[in-house]
Give the backbone structure.
Amino acid sequence: MENIRQIAKSDIVNEGKKLMDAGSKLVTAVCSDLDEKLEVSYFFSSGRGVDMTCLRYTVGKDEEVQSLSGVTLSSVLIENEMQELFGLKVKGLAIDYGGHMLLAHDSPVMPMLKTKKAEAKGDN
Protein backbone atom coordinates (compact mmCIF):
# COMPACT_ATOMS: atom_id res chain seq x y z
CA MET A 1 0.00 0.00 0.00
CA GLU A 2 1.40 3.36 -1.00
CA ASN A 3 -0.16 5.63 1.59
CA ILE A 4 1.14 4.18 4.85
CA ARG A 5 2.16 6.90 7.28
CA GLN A 6 4.20 5.94 10.31
CA ILE A 7 3.15 8.12 13.24
CA ALA A 8 3.89 8.31 16.95
CA LYS A 9 1.26 6.55 19.07
CA SER A 10 0.45 9.92 20.67
CA ASP A 11 -0.50 11.38 17.26
CA ILE A 12 -3.37 9.01 16.37
CA VAL A 13 -6.15 11.36 17.56
CA ASN A 14 -4.75 14.48 15.88
CA GLU A 15 -3.84 12.72 12.62
CA GLY A 16 -7.13 10.80 12.53
CA LYS A 17 -9.06 14.02 13.11
CA LYS A 18 -7.23 15.72 10.23
CA LEU A 19 -8.24 12.91 7.87
CA MET A 20 -11.84 12.91 9.12
CA ASP A 21 -12.08 16.71 8.82
CA ALA A 22 -10.87 16.38 5.21
CA GLY A 23 -13.75 14.00 4.43
CA SER A 24 -12.17 10.61 5.02
CA LYS A 25 -13.97 7.78 6.77
CA LEU A 26 -12.48 5.16 9.06
CA VAL A 27 -12.75 1.80 7.27
CA THR A 28 -11.04 -0.55 9.73
CA ALA A 29 -8.02 -1.02 11.92
CA VAL A 30 -5.80 -4.01 12.53
CA CYS A 31 -3.35 -5.06 15.21
CA SER A 32 -0.31 -7.28 14.69
CA ASP A 33 1.88 -8.90 17.32
CA LEU A 34 5.54 -8.13 16.51
CA ASP A 35 6.88 -10.14 19.49
CA GLU A 36 8.15 -7.23 21.63
CA LYS A 37 5.62 -4.67 20.40
CA LEU A 38 2.19 -4.35 18.83
CA GLU A 39 1.69 -2.67 15.47
CA VAL A 40 -1.62 -0.83 15.06
CA SER A 41 -2.85 0.34 11.64
CA TYR A 42 -5.94 2.48 11.03
CA PHE A 43 -7.26 2.61 7.46
CA PHE A 44 -9.14 5.64 6.15
CA SER A 45 -10.98 5.91 2.84
CA SER A 46 -11.53 9.09 0.83
CA GLY A 47 -12.36 10.09 -2.72
CA ARG A 48 -15.46 7.87 -2.91
CA GLY A 49 -13.50 4.96 -1.55
CA VAL A 50 -10.74 4.88 -4.15
CA ASP A 51 -8.06 6.53 -2.01
CA MET A 52 -6.81 4.82 1.15
CA THR A 53 -4.52 6.19 3.85
CA CYS A 54 -3.08 4.11 6.65
CA LEU A 55 -1.93 5.60 9.94
CA ARG A 56 0.42 3.13 11.62
CA TYR A 57 2.24 3.11 14.93
CA THR A 58 4.00 0.62 17.16
CA VAL A 59 3.51 0.43 20.88
CA GLY A 60 4.98 -1.60 23.71
CA LYS A 61 2.68 -4.33 24.97
CA ASP A 62 2.47 -2.66 28.38
CA GLU A 63 1.85 0.89 27.07
CA GLU A 64 -1.52 2.65 26.74
CA VAL A 65 -2.82 4.29 23.58
CA GLN A 66 -5.58 6.85 23.15
CA SER A 67 -8.87 5.79 21.59
CA LEU A 68 -9.95 7.34 18.32
CA SER A 69 -13.60 7.05 19.45
CA GLY A 70 -13.69 10.73 20.45
CA VAL A 71 -13.15 11.55 16.78
CA THR A 72 -15.22 8.76 15.21
CA LEU A 73 -17.49 6.42 17.14
CA SER A 74 -16.91 3.79 14.44
CA SER A 75 -13.57 2.97 16.10
CA VAL A 76 -15.27 1.60 19.24
CA LEU A 77 -15.83 -1.92 17.94
CA ILE A 78 -12.39 -2.43 16.43
CA GLU A 79 -10.58 -0.92 19.43
CA ASN A 80 -12.54 -3.18 21.80
CA GLU A 81 -11.64 -6.12 19.56
CA MET A 82 -7.92 -5.21 19.66
CA GLN A 83 -8.11 -4.96 23.47
CA GLU A 84 -9.72 -8.38 23.80
CA LEU A 85 -7.72 -10.30 21.22
CA PHE A 86 -4.27 -8.69 21.58
CA GLY A 87 -4.33 -6.97 24.97
CA LEU A 88 -3.88 -3.50 23.45
CA LYS A 89 -4.49 -1.03 26.29
CA VAL A 90 -6.87 1.60 24.88
CA LYS A 91 -7.79 4.52 27.12
CA GLY A 92 -10.70 6.88 26.59
CA LEU A 93 -12.96 4.43 24.74
CA ALA A 94 -16.44 5.91 24.33
CA ILE A 95 -17.89 2.44 24.98
CA ASP A 96 -15.66 -0.10 26.73
CA TYR A 97 -17.00 -3.65 26.81
CA GLY A 98 -14.49 -4.63 29.48
CA GLY A 99 -13.02 -7.53 27.53
CA HIS A 100 -16.32 -9.25 26.77
CA MET A 101 -17.58 -7.83 23.49
CA LEU A 102 -16.48 -10.94 21.57
CA LEU A 103 -15.06 -13.23 24.23
CA ALA A 104 -17.14 -15.10 26.80
CA HIS A 105 -16.14 -15.08 30.46
CA ASP A 106 -14.55 -18.54 30.08
CA SER A 107 -12.76 -17.78 26.79
CA PRO A 108 -8.96 -17.76 26.52
CA VAL A 109 -7.44 -14.40 27.47
CA MET A 110 -5.92 -12.42 24.57
CA PRO A 111 -6.06 -15.39 22.17
CA MET A 112 -4.25 -13.63 19.30
CA LEU A 113 -1.27 -12.52 21.38
CA LYS A 114 1.92 -14.50 20.80
CA THR A 115 3.10 -16.27 23.93
CA LYS A 116 6.61 -16.99 22.66
CA LYS A 117 8.74 -16.13 19.67
CA ALA A 118 8.39 -18.32 16.62
CA GLU A 119 11.21 -20.81 16.19
CA ALA A 120 13.45 -20.50 13.17
CA LYS A 121 12.51 -22.87 10.34
CA GLY A 122 14.95 -24.87 8.31
CA ASP A 123 17.34 -25.76 11.16
CA ASN A 124 16.98 -29.55 10.73
